[in-house]
Structures are given as C-alpha cells and as structure tokens.
Amino acid sequence: MGSSSPSRKDRHRSGKHPREVMPAHLTDEVRGDASDDAEERDAFADRLRQRELSRKEETRRSRNDRKAHRPDSQAHADAPARESVTANDLRERSRQEYLRKREQSRLELLRGQIEDEEQLFQGMKLTDAERERLEYQREVLRLAEERKDIKVGVEGYVMPEDYITEKGKIDRKRKEQVLYQRYQEPDRRGPGATSGASRSEQEQWEERQISRTLIKGKVREPTAATATDEPGTEPTEFDYILDETAIDFVMESTLDPETDADREARE
Predict the structure, then answer these.
(1) Is 0.70 surpassed by the pTM of this model?
(2) Cβ 169 vs Cβ 156: under 8 Å
(3) CB 129 within 8 A of CB 135
(4) SS3 of 145, please?
(5) How far apart are CA 115 and CA 112, in angstroms?
(6) Apex CA 122: angle with CA 119 and CA 124, to 5°?
(7) How confident is the model at residue 236 (pLDDT cuts 50, 70, 90)?
(8) Residue 207: what pLDDT?
(9) Rg (Cα) of the chain, in Å, rounded?
(10) Does the CA dihedral 201-204-210-213 come out positive or negative?
(11) Do residues 236 and 229 touch, judged by C-beta distance below 8 A?
(12) Which of 16, 80, 178, 256 is most buried, by CB atoms within 10 Å?
C-alpha cells in the first residue's frame, strides 16, 4: 500500500497535534478588533493624561487666586479705617483753609471800617468813647497784622514739605520751591531786642573774628618821649600795642558775645 496520512493513534504517540487553521474572514475580524482595542486604549490614556494636566492647572490657578485675593481682603478690611483717616485729613484741611480765608476777610473788613471812620470823622471833634473805640480798632488791626508776619522758628530738623498732591501727582511748582529754598536761621528776636540779635550765631562769631584780626594803629602826637629821639631821625608816629587795655582776651570775648555796636544801639 502506498503512504497514507498518519492515523490519529500515531499522532497521539508522537505528541504532535495538528495546527488549527482559522478562516480568513475570522482572522480579519480579530485583527480589526485588536486594532480598535489599541486605539481605544491610547485614547483612554490620552484622556487620563489630559484630565491629570487639567487638574494640576486648576490646582495651580486656585492657589494663585488665593494668594492674589489675600492682600485684597486685607485691603478691604483696612479700607474703612483708611477712608476715615483720609476724610478726617480733608476735613481738617478744609477747616484750616476756611479759617484762613475768614481771618483775611475779617481783617479787610476791619481795615475798611477804620478807613471809613477816619474819613467820616475827619476834622470833627470826637468824644472820648469814639476816640477809644477807634484806637481799639487800630490796635486790634495792628496786632493781627503783626501776628501774620511772625515767622515761627523750629529748633532742630524739620521734615520738608511734601510736593505730592492728593491725587498722587507731583506738583512741579511746589517741588522747585522746596529744592531751591535756602536755609533760614530761626528768628530769636523778642520784645526789646536789638538789631544785633537778628544775626545768627555763626554771623556774630565771624564778625568777632574779623574785628579781632584788624590791627588798629594809633597815631600819636610827638611827645617828650618821641622828641628825645636821635638827631636826624623822624619822630615815631606809631607805637606797639602792648598795653593790657588794647589786648582782646579770647575768654572775655567768648563769654561776652555782645559787640560794641550792640551796646551802642542799646544805649
């Protein structure tokens, strides 16, 4: 007999099983399903990745928002107090401005009233009451004008005037005035003070130093002492200032800052 296919028994003995062959249409379906599964898996992984990124972005935004809103909440909490301080400052400035304008208007009114009464009663004999009232008005006007001219000096350092307006802008005119103004010595003149008291301490010290360095030669007439000079020599017109009355002692001038001009003005 010719060769024949191995029997089932022989195949079992050899341990080899026949390879099952899948039909072609089933193979295409399996491949298509596997491809679809891979695409779905990749799409799902992309969705998970996007969701994780979006969650991290939301967390970061919420954290930044909390940081950004924290000062705002503090500012909102402090807003009433700040507005109250600003309102009080504006109210005080307005009050001071009103008082200044009112004082100026009252002074102008008093000045005009005095001028009218002087013109009205010119050449007329006034009673004692009218004369006293007119003198009283003149004295009030004089004192008010003197008080306006008084410059109050402050000992020590004074903060410069702010040239920033209430709207946060720079007032150029006020800034230039602050930059170019010169230091002024405080006026220490009081009632009955002499003209020398108006000078600063530095100026008085410089004047004393200058007067101390000036050499004043005394011209003397020829005396018996000068007449006994050697023949052929001219008489001595100048003499050395060696007597104690002409020596300016430093201690005395330091303890007595009043100059001769001040003494003469006082006398």
Answers:
(1) no
(2) no
(3) no
(4) helix
(5) 5
(6) 140
(7) low
(8) 85
(9) 54
(10) negative
(11) yes
(12) 178
